[in-house]
């Protein structure tokens, strides 16, 4: 049997969940949560579906969820409603007797998949030949544990969209240049805001295995990995231009995973946390066009009816991998846990954890 077929068999959710009503599933979740009490903790990323987020013990962006996982020493079981790299981070930051579960193993992140450790190590050899010991690797937390370990090993750190400025600033106190993985847009937008010129940045193409630049190699300060978020790359300058023509008073706020020209044309840009806080504090009656994931935009529209909130892209689709975690997968995981089975446990090996923690702690320990 092929590996994919095997995976499909393991993954298939039992038929019974299709015939249970929504109310039945919801009451089973509440019953199991009540039974486990503090032994069970459910963190949920802001991009999750409402049907799932209603059961989250805490909600947050990547940085907040990493901090919450580290601080939670009570829970024996952490059922992570987010994507794979977030569950890996939670596992690495929690104790050995705490178990992290991802309700659907297919909840990955297409951006994290754009940088493999093999590609990164191969790139590093070339970059060392070009630049010697003058580069520091930084990785967005949206990356595998192996990439985080790579950064930890070479003195680098992780960053999130909430602290990217601070971390890039710190990185330049350590070395002359940076390798920023795996999101070229967050890397470019952050470095640009800190005064690095666009012509001082070059893109590393992991498929072609080469540095894309027509500038003198010694002038390059930031090497951007050629990765992107398939959700945030769908926001365009044309959408903003059209909106400016049709609704000049609408304010555009976007996530820095969007392309540079979109971020430059928007009124405001910042992390998921920043977007939420800015909308929350804005004067009633403000009209917002938001460039981030759709589940969050829809939730903000419901939570803040005194504002008008819509997506910058009217045909916006949600993050498909985040959406793999649905009510059915959550209740399935919890029912198995009740029976004593750890379904889809996420466990990072000891060596990777040790090195990746160096990178994570360099970020988490910075005030
Ligand atoms: P933040 O939670 O850091 O804003 O990142 C957004 C994202 O794309 C998570 O996958
Ligand atoms: Fe990955 Fe983008 Fe989805 Fe975040 S929104 S999990 S970066 S694909």
Label the overall shape. globular
Bound molecules: 1,3-dihydroxyacetonephosphate, iron/sulfur cluster
Write the CATH architecture name of the largest domain.
3-Layer(aba) Sandwich
Low-pLDDT segments:
1-6
β-strand amount: 5-15%
- Determine the N-to-C terminus distance: 51 Å
Report mean pLDDT, rounded to a whole number: 94
Give the spatial strand order of the biggest sheet. 7-6-8-11-9-10
* Radius of gyration from the alpha-carbon trace, in angstroms: 21 Å
Alpha plus pi helix count = 16
- CATH topology type of the largest domain: Rossmann fold
Provide a descriptive summary of the structure in words.
This protein has three domains: 3-108 and 321-349, Rossmann fold (3-Layer(aba) Sandwich); 112-230, Rossmann fold (3-Layer(aba) Sandwich), CATH 3.40.50; 232-311, Rossmann fold (3-Layer(aba) Sandwich). It has helices spanning 3-11, 16-19, 22-36, 50-53, 62-71, 84-93, 117-131, 145-153, 164-174, 184-193, 237-246, 260-265, 272-281, 294-303, 327-338, 350-364; strands spanning 40-41, 43-45, 58-60, 77-79, 99-101, 135-140, 157-159, 177-181, 201-205, 210-212, 222-225, 251-254, 268-269, 287-291, 308-311. It is 44% helix and 15% strand. Helix 3 (22-36) packs across helix 15 and helix 8 (145-153) crosses helix 16. The strands form four sheets. It has a six-stranded mixed sheet with strand order 7-6-8-11-9-10, with helices on both faces. A four-stranded parallel sheet has the order 13-12-14-15, with helices on one face. It is an alpha/beta fold and 367 residues long.
């Amino acid at each position: 049997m092929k590996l994919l077929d095997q995976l499909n068999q393991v993954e298939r959710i039992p038929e019974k969940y299709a015939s249970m009503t929504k109310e039945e599933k919801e009451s089973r979740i509440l019953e199991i949560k009540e039974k486990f009490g503090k032994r069970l903790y459910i963190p949920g990323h802001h991009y999750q579906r409402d049907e799932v987020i209603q059961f989250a013990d805490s909600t947050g962006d990547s940085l907040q969820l990493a901090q919450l996982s580290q601080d939670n020493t009570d829970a024996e079981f952490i059922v992570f409603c987010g994507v794979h790299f977030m569950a890996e981070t939670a596992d690495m930051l929690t104790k050995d007797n705490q178990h992290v579960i991802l309700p659907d193993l297919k909840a990955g992140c297409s951006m994290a998949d754009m940088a493999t450790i093999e590609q990164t190590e191969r790139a590093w050899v070339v970059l060392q030949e070009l630049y010697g010991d003058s580069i520091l690797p930084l990785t967005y937390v949206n990356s595998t544990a192996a990439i985080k370990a790579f950064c930890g090993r070479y003195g680098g750190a992780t960053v999130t969209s909430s602290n990217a400025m601070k971390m890039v600033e710190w990185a330049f106190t350590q070395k002359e240049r940076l390798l920023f993985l795996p999101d070229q847009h967050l890397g470019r937008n952050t470095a640009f805001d800190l005064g690095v010129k666009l012509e001082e940045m070059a893109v590393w193409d992991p498929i072609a295995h080469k540095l894309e630049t027509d500038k003198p190699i010694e002038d390059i300060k930031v090497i951007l990995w050629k990765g992107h978020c398939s959700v945030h790359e769908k926001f365009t300058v044309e959408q903003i231009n059209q909106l400016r023509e049709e609704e000049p008073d609408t304010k555009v706020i976007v996530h820095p995973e969007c392309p540079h020209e979109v971020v430059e044309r928007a009124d405001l840009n910042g992390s998921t946390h920043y977007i939420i806080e800015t909308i929350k504090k804005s004067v009633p009656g403000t009209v917002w066009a938001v460039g981030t994931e759709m589940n969050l935009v829809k939730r903000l529209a419901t939570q803040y009816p005194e504002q008008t909130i819509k997506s910058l892209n009217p045909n916006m689709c949600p993050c498909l991998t985040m959406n793999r975690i649905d009510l059915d997968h959550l209740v399935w995981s919890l029912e198995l846990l009740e029976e004593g089975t750890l379904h889809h446990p996420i466990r990072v090996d000891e060596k990777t954890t040790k090195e990746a923690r160096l990178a994570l702690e360099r970020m988490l320990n910075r005030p």
